[in-house]
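Section 4.2 – Deliverable D4.2 (structural model, holo form)

The reporting period included a commitment to supply a predicted holo structure for the target in complex with FE2/S2 (inorganic) cluster. Inputs used:
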Amino acid sequence: MTTVRFAVNGAPAEVDVSGSRRLLDVLREELALTGTKEGCGEGECGACSVLLDGALVDACLVPMCQVEGADIRTVEGLGRAVASGVPPTPDDLDALQRAFLETGGAQCGICTPGMLMAGHAFLASGTPPTDEAIREAIAGNLCRCTGYTKIVEAIALAATRTATFDA
Ligand code: FES
Ligand code: FES
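Output (structure tokens):
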């Protein structure tokens, strides 16, 4: 067991875990941050995408030994935090979350947290939000429901508004 200290959504976190434990499991099981989803568990679907020091990573592939001192951002860190169990209103959401809502970019929602994190990484990169660039940015995130068009629309819409975390 190793003590790993890091930050999650701006708050300090400390867990005693095996260094090989996956960040995905620590987020969901130790920190109750269940917004991050598991799809494939093999780095193929992007459902578990989070930001690690601003870089998009698959949390299912990140061992905790690589998380020491890192700054982790999950879907729970977007928008304005609300008390546990209180459904967020559109006013609590950030620009990209609102854009997903407005364009219908989520159906079953399994891919949505990962898409949001990929979208944020794209917006933060400052890359001009062409359809092609957005599709490339979310190429590692699979959606079985929407066919991507509405997701691309949502990211493009958010790019015309605030393109950074606006909690
Ligand atoms: S669950 Fe991590 S990439 Fe699919
Ligand atoms: S909305 Fe269902 S997987 Fe994308």
